[in-house]
Structure formats: C-alpha cells, structure tokens
Amino acid sequence: MQPAAFVFDAYGTLFDVHSAAARYADALGERWLTLSELWRTKQLEYTWVRTLAGKHCSFWQVTEDGLDYASAAVGGIDGDLRGRLLDSYRKLAAYPEVPECLKALKARGSVVAILSNGDPDMLADAVNSAGLEDAFDAVLSVAEVGVYKPNHQVYELATARLGVSPTQVSFQSSNRWDIAGAKSFGFRTVWINRAGRPDEYLDLAADEVLNDLNGLLR
Q1: Catalytic residue list contains 199
Q2: Partners of residue 5 on adjacent β-strands
Q3: Same domain as 115, residue 54
Q4: Taking 80 as the threshold, does the pLDDT of residue 1 lie above it?
C-alpha cells in the first residue's frame, strides 16, 4: 500500500553533511575528511547528551561546538576558516537524485515532508540553497518540541502536523539510530545506507534498505 506521507530526515539523507568541509579541502589539506567526520560525530553526540541531560540547545549551537572539537582534534584552524565552514554548513549540497525523487513522489499525490534535528532557519537555508523550495508540504524541526531524535516526541510531531497515523508514514533516514527510533514509534522505515555500513539495532530492523532515494520510486 502506498504510504500517505514520505517523511525525510535532512542531514545525511537529503543533504550531504560532508559537502561543507569538502568545499574547503584545499585549505584544510588531507585532514579535511577527518575533520568533517569528527564534526558530524560530535554534532550528533551533543544532541543525545543534551536530550538525556534535559539541557536542550539549538542545533546551530551543537554544530558550532562540534566544529570546535573537530578543529582542535586535527590541530586547529583559524577563525576565518571556521566562519567559512559554518557558513558552508548552511548551504549543504543535496544528493544528486534528491530533486527528481521528491518531485516524482509529489506527482504521485503523496505528502512530502522533512523531519529534522535542524533549526528552522538552518533548514530553510539548506532547502533554498538546494533549490527545493517547492518540494515539501512541510519542513518540521525538533525546535517545536525541545528535544532531539530519537525521542518519540519528535516523530509524533510529524503525525500530528501531517494528520496521519504512524503506519501511514514512510520514514527515510541515512542514520541507522534514527531508523531505530522511528521504527520503535511505529513508522514504516527505509534506511538510506549510502555508505554501505553494517546493520545494527537488529531488534529494530528497517523495513527496507536502499543505497539512495531512487529505490523509493520502484
């Protein structure tokens, strides 16, 4: 049965989180990918710690904090490059298949939405810079509930705002922990395993595993 709504995680699923640092690979040298991977790892870690500690802050704050840790870990960067990297994070590149996939899903009559840890202004910048202004029926941020994924309040935000039940939602994420959280909430889940990573959280298995979003159009 065709889902009533296709709900997408943003960072790593629609937008390439490593494109921010890749733009400055020449300035960073061979350490650019190490910095980028640490940046992403710490950004996520800080969301989980703050949610568990009851100390919510903006996603922009954990993005800055994650970059500062990563920068220190690779030997430091100057303030100008730090500013350029942060600006670049607001203009992440969309993966190549994203525009046409979203357009095709909407043409089928499905509701298409983002459900993200990102702040509303960060998501607006990413959507606009990728030329996806008309691609979504809703862009939903955890800022509305004050906790980060995989807290169930986040997934409930999608069902409440879109007027659907969990079983009517197909939820796509590149983050396996996000898929586990969405599965436990009751969504149909599709893990976009772009990096070919091994599976985990086997008791909360994805309903489908794809290499990219094109598989949604089969």
Answers
A1: no
A2: 111, 169
A3: no
A4: no
CA dihedral 49, 53, 58, 61 (to 10 degrees): -50
Domain boundary among 72, 89, 106: 89
Judge contact between 141 and 35, C-beta under 8 A. no
Return the bridge partners of 192, or none.
210
Indicate if 85 and 96 belong to the same structural domain.
no
pLDDT score recorded for residue 214: 96
Predicted structure pTM score: 0.96
CATH number for the domain that contains residue 126: 3.40.50.1000
Please tell me the distance from the alpha carbon of residue 211 to that of residue 194, in angstroms, as a whole number. Answer: 5
Closest CA to 128 of 86, 94, 83: 94
Alpha-carbon distances of 102 from 14, 178, 206, 213, rounded to whole Å: 10, 20, 21, 9
110 and 178 share one domain: yes
Q: How many distinct structural domains can be found in the chain?
A: 2
36-77 pLDDT, tens per residue? 999 999 999 999 999 999 999 999 999 999 999 999 999 999
Domain extent at residue 114: 5-16+92-217
Which of the 8 DSSP states describes residue 169? Answer: E
Catalytic entry in 9, 80, 125, 199: 9
Same domain, 137 and 161: yes
